[in-house]
Amino acid sequence: CSVPAFALASIEGEKMKLHCGIISLNGREIIREEAEMDKDEGDKLGEILAKRVIQNGGEKILNDIKKQIG
Fold it and tell me: Over the stretch 1-32, which tens digit does the pLDDT of each residue have?
């Protein structure tokens, strides 16, 4: 894998908390997001946070990575 992306989910009772993000190859930029929803909606939570990461700078990091690794 060439993209330094991460995610960590934890469940407490009926809630799922998800931390996720992406890091630039040089480690200088990092986009982090986290949120919590009912554990039955884990897929939805992942989609929501992925969109937030992309909107908050993740798209730029991904484009930079594509340029660097060709």
Answer: 678 999 999 999 999 999 999 999 999 999 99
Pairing of strands 5-12, 30-38: unpaired
Instruction: Kindly report the pTM of this predicted structure.
Output: 0.86
Q: Where are the alpha helices (DSSP H) in the chain?
A: 42-53, 59-69
Residue 10, token pair as written in the block: 């934890």
At a CB cut-off of 8 Å and minimum separation 6, what does 33 contact? 19, 20, 21, 49, 52, 53, 56
What is the number of residues in the chain?
A: 70
Supply 56's token pair. Answer: 């908050």
Return d(Cα 54, Cα 5) in angstroms, integer. 12
Residue that has been written with the tokens 């690794």 in this structure:
69
Token pair, residue 23, equals 């890091």
